[in-house]
Design brief:
In chain A, about 80% of the residues lie in helices and about 0% in strands. Chain A has about 80 residues and is an all-alpha fold. The chains are: A mainly alpha (about 80), B mainly alpha (about 210).
């Protein structure tokens, strides 16, 4: 497998849906190609960083305005 | 004291926190405000982040957040409970976010997609330097958020939205395609380009010297 093919299959590999034979070829390539190994590792890390919910807190004022708006709406509907 | 309206509200909120999503939805449909409020508490952070990722603007994200929950409340009787409440909420949130983008596109301030990006074209990485270990620990939380925000905002909105729905929300390719009115191959192509571009941007910050 060549580097270009690794890039073509990168998303399926990261998603765990790559065909078994292709995955074997890709892993064999990664064991020999440092550049591709770096791309795979850092792309995975990129996804992990965005998945870390703790990095994205909800601002307190946004939370308070939301609840105030919803409370008002609920009260309107019940009266 | 325990008979006061405030004490009753606190007790209802505590009881709501212990319930599962399906029970809360049924109670909210029957008119329980504490049950709906608990659903809001559970998902407000995720819907805000959804809005932020689609629109790239804190002001628009707050509008998306409010509109999503107001519409959810208004249309709760129509929710058929054959999918998760949260999935239904995400659908509303995505539509609200995309509507914001379309309005801005109509104002000619933000393109929905980047016509210069050839989605089928071969995107190749340019940065091959490995990252420092534990990049999330290299910066303060607020700095890391800024770095991630800046990288995400540099993507065309539809690429950003595909990335967020697939990689952060965990929607399938088929679900994302349906929500965004794209083909599955278009979702895959955009996801690949988004992942690669974000990686390139973050590499500039986190790569080893």
């Amino acid at each position: 497998m060549r580097c270009k093919k690794v890039m073509e299959e990168l998303s399926d590999y990261l998603d765990g849906v790559l065909d078994a034979a292709l995955k074997e070829d890709l892993c064999a390539h990664l064991s020999k190609c440092h550049h591709c190994q770096v791309v795979v590792d850092t792309t995975r890390k990129t996804i992990d960083l965005y998945c870390d919910g703790e990095v994205f807190p909800l601002p307190t004022d946004v939370h308070e305005r939301l609840h105030s708006v919803i409370r008002r709406k609920c009260q309107q509907q019940t009266t | 004291m325990s008979d006061s309206p405030q004490a009753a509200q606190v007790a209802a909120a505590q009881a709501a926190r212990a319930r599962d999503e399906a029970t809360l939805v049924r109670e909210a449909k029957a008119g329980s405000y504490p049950a709906f409020e608990e659903l809001v508490n559970r998902y407000e952070k995720k819907i805000y982040r959804l809005g932020l990722n689609i629109t790239g603007s804190p002001e628009d994200a707050e509008d998306v957040l409010q509109e999503t929950f107001l519409k959810a409340y208004q249309h709760l009787p129509d929710f058929r409970e054959d999918s998760r409440f949260y999935t239904w909420l995400v659908r509303i949130g995505v539509n609200e976010g995309l509507m914001k983008l379309r309005r801005r596109r109509a104002d000619k301030t933000v393109p929905m997609d980047d016509p210069a990006v050839d989605e089928e074209g071969a995107a190749m990485p340019r940065e091959f330097t490995d990252w420092k270990p534990n990049p999330e620990q290299l910066l303060a939380q607020s700095e890391l958020r800024q770095v991630l925000d800046n990288a995400a905002r540099s993507l065309p909105p539809i690429f950003r939205t595909v990335f967020f729905l697939r990689d952060v929300e965990g929607l399938s390719t088929a679900e994302t395609a349906e929500l965004l009115d794209l083909t599955e191959s278009a979702v895959k192509a955009r996801l690949f380009r988004a992942r690669l571009q974000l990686r390139e941007d973050l590499s500039k910050v986190f790569k080893k010297a």
